[in-house]
UniProtKB/TrEMBL annotation:
InterPro entries: DUF1425, YcfL-like_sf. This is YcfL family protein. The lineage of its organism: Bacteria, Pseudomonadati, Campylobacterota, Epsilonproteobacteria, Campylobacterales. Keywords: Signal. Pfam families: DUF1425 (PF07233). CDD domains: DUF1425. Residues 1-20 form the signal peptide.
Amino acid sequence: MKKILLFTLTLFLISCTNNSNNVNTNTNNNLKQNNTLIKNMKTRINDNNLLEVELTLQSSSTKDIMYKITWLDNDGFVLKDALSDNYQSLRLNAKDEIVIKKIAADIRAKDVKIDIKSNSKTTTRKDKYND
């Protein structure tokens, strides 16, 4: 229980340093006890009024992961995007940092949900950009 509380507090402090105003993070207990993959996540609205996300991943051991980015409108409804509709595979080497940058294709995107699968464990992070 102490590990979960410490992990939650750490995520809270990390989210306070982001450019985003409202960050919700949900991870399963197996991933909490192993290595946290999401080191940092930032969002912003670019000059073309499109939502951008920058995700930094890091692991202490080599992992093959799959990730999927889902763009959501202001009401939380999924905005279909053929380019980001499928999971993308990625090898995360031990102690390496990988930065993933994505831009929404739809100007209505105000929220992003990122699903990460690793060794049948899943982590989900949701970040909403508030004007």
